[in-house]
Design a protein that fits this description.
Elements lengths: L5 H5 L4 E2 L2 E2 L5 H7 L1 E8 L15 E9 L10 E6 L4 E4 L3 E7 L2 E6 L11 E9 L13 E4 L5 E2 L6 E2 L6 E2 L26 H11 L17 E4 L5 E2 L4 E6 L5 H9 L9 E7 L8 E5 L4 E5 L2 H13 L7 E2 L2 E5 L5 E7 L7 H13 L4 E8 L2 E2 L8 H4 L34 H12 L4 E8 L4 H16 L3 H4 L29 H21 L5 E5 L11 H9 L9 H15 L3 E5 H6 L9 E4 L7 H10 L3 E4 L2 H4 L23 H5 L9 H4 L10 E2 L12 E6 L7 H8 L2 H10 L13 E2 L9 H25 L10 E5 L2 E5 L7 E5 L5 E2 L4 E2 L3 E6 L11 E4 L7
Parallel strand pairs: 16-17, 17-19, 22-23, 22-31, 23-25, 25-26, 26-27, 27-28, 28-29, 29-31
Antiparallel strand pairs: 1-2, 3-4, 4-9, 5-8, 5-10, 6-9, 7-8, 10-11, 12-13, 14-21, 15-20, 18-19, 18-21, 23-24, 30-32, 33-34, 34-37, 35-36, 35-38, 38-39
Keywords: Glycosidase, Hydrolase
Family: Belongs to the glycosyl hydrolase 20 family.
InterPro entries: Beta_hexosaminidase_sua/sub (IPR025705), CBM2/CBM3_carb-bd_dom_sf (IPR008965), CBM2_carb-bd_dom_sf (IPR012291), CHB/HEX_N_dom (IPR004866), CHB_C_dom (IPR004867), GH (IPR017853), Glyco_hydro_20_cat (IPR015883), Hex-like_dom2 (IPR029018)
């Protein structure tokens, strides 16, 4: 039972017609208090701190409206997550930064409290800017006196019952073009209004002829239609010969799409031949039979996935044809962050199924970060007992701090982890679908969950009098008084590289992970260290000062990241595991890394990222392209504040932009794309021009700071992930061939394949809208339904969509939704939206205003 302080029992006595109201508790206050959030102005004023965020800051207001019991003058605290560090607060309130994104507000003595129905606006300034309605976090907490904080009900997320989309009703819409929708005065990003989308969609529009007679995603090397009768799906198929063992996962997808196994079905023959490579295959389809040739099981598996890809759910046959195919890159990946917010096992299985369907072969699984540790490690139970959940416990004895708006409930859907057996089963599930799982437990930075868990272990064992065991896996210097703030504003999120106990911990973790892979029968080939964002974390550590003094190769704490990576890489190599990491950390250690390594290049192209990628290639590393400009799927599809997600690198990454990526010619994008503020940039390929070096592949990234639910994972990934599959498997004829030494900008004209690219996009978009989205519906994937482009001139409605084939709807002034028809008469305010391919789910609507007078 919660403790009741004097402040909580009789903090405020209010009179209402000479009647005394009931005493206030945290629960009653949280149930009634109205909370609102509004961005006031993104333009910095004279009170912005010039030493933070390059002088950029924005103003926002949190409004509190008292319920029937009012709000006490004193004795309460308001806790909230704000991803941008809050610099200052105005009025009779005190602001405290606790750690990370967690802040606290308390009233000063001059605050007079609120009577029932009264409101107060608390004005604050935070770093940088806010142009997305997902920037504020849900689940504000309030507490009276020393009571346990409770989530304010009006600050919770809600799911729209019609669209299924998650919303935060307490957040005021962003509508003002200058004050709210622009980052800076130089921001020229156009907002994705219905009118703007209409023009963009017209530019890329496909007619009905764009859908080929037979096509699939990703595009094969060659597909030839043959004369003869089509293969009838109704007959099913009969596995006549199979040289490749278990292909049940691919056969199950065929059955799901209507081509099931039958004793009287069309014969399917799978034959092993030499010379087609690990993932290459040949596929022949006719009424008489289906013949697959491959050299390895992966090729046979992908042949069956191509057969499934040819199916259209509105057609009962597949034309007679022949395919010869092999992938462009050996690495075709997805990075999925389950550390920030844990979305559960089910979505992992669903994602793996779709990766296999579209021939993506690597799941880079991000299992630990500052906000959570999501994999059980034998012998280190604190990692998941503490690090597997967030709730309100400032002492962090039961759970981590409630970062990212986690609230007060340890059973919240954002909490959880994979047990040993669950991870083993996941590995096996992925393996039979030709998907390799690369685990990542981020270190030395982004490691607060581990640091706090091992601190709790140290505390527990010291209390038991076992000092030797207590220090065995300690990750922080007990004598250190750190003064850094990480990129996410943590003061204690970095493993100390100067402690032998840090490496004992890492080896213990590696041992546990490797043993789980061995038990699964799926060897651990690559481990992703992380190794990003560790600046100035050890500048006050006595242990590091001593290490720098004693090690000849260390001159300052700036060398410690390289020292750490070298030691961890050696641990991995001793276990026969390849080290991998993010490019910034790997480049900081480029002269210290032993043997072959994999580097994931995540530098913005608009900030010279092509040079960083080329530099890594010139070092002889295996490089996986992970550019935020186009491959960060936590970023919004369109520049629309309702899309949600982070946007530090780009405000709009729609499926077309992913499709238009030319991975082997990175500087060329300066000619066809813009920077994160919608402005031209220049890329000069002069510093590290390539001479035949080539990336290993590409990888999409989904970071989940703002993704709290499984259906949000699906929304963010699909259908963009299909465009990643297209570019990773197939090199388009329109891609500009790389030539060293060129400079690209908005005025250069090296790229002359616009028409060919548009025609190819129209084919891809037609396949997506008229063939593949229906399959995602059948698989239960809550993909993003595109927002509709529309104009209503002369009171006549015209609407279009980035993908053809989906049903469009409109309604006038809040009336009933009705099917769209061209030139429909409209007037006043209206909305437009699309529906899913199966018609069961509406997408988000956009408003517009009819103009003019309709002709007679």
């Amino acid at each position: 039972m919660l403790r009741r302080s004097l402040a909580g029992i009789a903090v405020l006595t209010l009179l209402a017609g000479c009647q005394q109201v009931e005493p206030i508790s945290s629960e009653s206050l949280a149930a009634e208090l109205g909370l609102g959030y509004q961005v006031v102005d993104n333009r910095p004023d004279e009170q912005c701190n010039p030493d933070k965020a390059d002088g950029f800051c924005y103003r926002f207001a949190v409004s509190l409206t008292a319920g029937s019991q009012g709000l006490p003058a004193q004795g309460w605290q308001l806790l909230f997550s704000q991803v941008s560090y809050v610099q200052s607060i105005e009025g009779p309130f005190t602001l405290e930064h606790i750690n990370g994104d967690l802040h606290r507000i308390t009233p000063k003595a001059e605050f007079a409290g609120l009577a029932p129905g009264e409101s107060v606006d608390i004005l604050m300034r935070a770093n940088f800017w806010s142009v997305s309605n997902s920037d504020p976090m849900p689940n504000y907490l309030i507490a009276l006196g020393d009571e346990t904080p409770v989530v304010i009900q009006s600050s919770r997320e809600l799911q729209d019952p019609e669209t299924g989309l998650w919303q935060m009703p307490f957040v005021a819409p962003l509508t003002d073009p200058e004050r709210q929708l622009k980052r800076t005065s130089d921001d020229n990003t156009p907002q994705a209004t219905a009118q703007w989308l209409y023009t963009e969609n017209q530019r890329l529009a496909a007619d009905g002829s764009a859908l080929p007679e037979a096509g699939l995603i990703p595009t094969p090397q060659s597909l030839t239609l043959l004369e003869g009768q089509a293969l009838t799906l109704a007959r099913g198929l009969r596995l006549a010969d199979n040289d490749f063992g278990d292909l049940s996962a691919a056969l199950a997808r065929l059955a799901q799409l209507g081509l099931a196994q039958s004793d009287k079905g069309t014969p399917l023959s799978l034959s092993r031949v030499d010379g087609l490579g690990t993932e290459g295959y040949q596929l022949s389809v006719s009424e008489a039979g289906i013949e697959v040739s491959a050299s390895e099981p992966a090729g046979a598996f992908y042949a069956l996935q191509s057969l499934a890809g040819l199916i259209r759910l509105d057609r009962d046959s597949i034309p007679a044809l022949q395919i010869e195919d092999a992938p462009r890159y050996g690495y075709r990946g997805l990075h999925l962050d389950v550390a920030r917010n844990y979305q559960g096992e089910e979505v992992l299985y669903k994602v793996i199924d779709q990766m296999a369907a579209y021939k993506l072969n690597t799941l880079h699984l991000h299992l630990a970060d500052d906000e959570g540790w999501r994999l059980a490690i034998p012998g280190l139970p604190e990692l998941t007992e503490l690090g597997g959940q967030r709730c309100f416990d400032l002492s962090e004895q039961r759970c981590l701090l409630p970062q990212l708006g986690a609230g007060d409930d340890p059973q919240s859907s954002v909490n959880g982890y994979l047990s040993e057996q669950e991870y083993i089963e996941l590995l096996r599930y992925a393996d039979v679908r030709q998907v390799e799982v690369i685990p990542s437990l981020d270190m030395p930075g982004h490691a607060r969950a581990a640091v706090r868990a091992m601190a709790l272990r140290h505390q527990r064992l010291m209390a038991q009098g076992d000092a030797e065991e207590a220090g065995r896996y300690l990750l922080h210097d007990l004598e250190d008084k750190p003064e850094y703030l990480s990129v996410q504003y943590y003061t204690d999120n970095t493993i100390n590289p100067c402690l032998d106990s840090s490496y004992a911990f890492i080896d213990k973790v590696l041992e546990g992970v490797q043993q789980m892979h061995q038990r699964a029968g799926v060897p651990l080939h690559t481990y992703h260290i992380g190794a990003d964002e560790t600046e100035e974390a050890w500048s006050h550590s006595p242990r590091c000062e001593a290490l720098i003094e004693s090690e000849l190769q260390l001159d300052s704490d700036e060398d410690l990241t390289g020292y750490f990576l070298r030691r961890v890489a050696l641990l991995l190599q001793q276990r026969g595991i390849r080290p991998a990491g993010w490019s910034d950390g790997m480049l900081s250690a480029k002269d210290q890394l032993p043997g072959q390594v994999s580097s994931y290049s995540w530098d913005l192209l608009a900030w010279g990222g092509h040079d960083k990628t080329h530099q890594q290639l010139k070092l002889g590393w295996d490089v996986v392209l992970s550019s935020p400009d186009v491959l960060y799927f936590d970023f919004p599809y369109e520049a629309d504040p309702n899309e949600g997600g982070y946007y530090w690198g780009a405000r709009n990454i729609n499926t077309y932009k992913v499709f238009s990526l030319m991975p082997d010619n990175l500087p060329a994008h300066a000619e066809i794309w813009r920077d994160r503020q919608g402005n031209p940039y220049q890329a000069a390929d002069t510093q590290f021009a390539l001479d035949g070096e080539r990336i290993q592949g590409i990888q999409a990234q989904l970071w989940t700071e703002t993704v709290r639910h499984p259906d949000q994972v699906e929304y963010k990934l699909f259908p963009r992930l299909l465009a990643v599959a297209e570019r990773a498997w197939h090199q388009a004829d329109w891609e500009l061939e790389y030539q060293p030494g060129l400079t690209f900008n908005a005025q250069t004209q090296h790229f002359q394949q616009q028409e060919a690219r548009t025609a190819d996009w129209q084919r891809f978009a037609a396949l997506l809208g008229q063939q593949e989205l229906a399959k995602l519906d059948r698989a239960g994937i809550a993909y993003r339904i595109p927002t509709v482009g529309a104009v209503a001139e002369q009171n006549r409605l015209q609407a279009n969509l980035i993908f053809p084939g989906l049903a469009l709807e409109y309604r006038i002034a809040g009336g009933e939704w009705q099917p769209y028809r061209a030139d429909a008469p409209v007037s006043g305010a209206l909305e437009v939206r699309a529906r899913s391919a199966d018609g069961q789910r509406p997408g988000r609507s956009l408003p517009l205003e009819a103009t003019g007078t309709a002709g007679q």
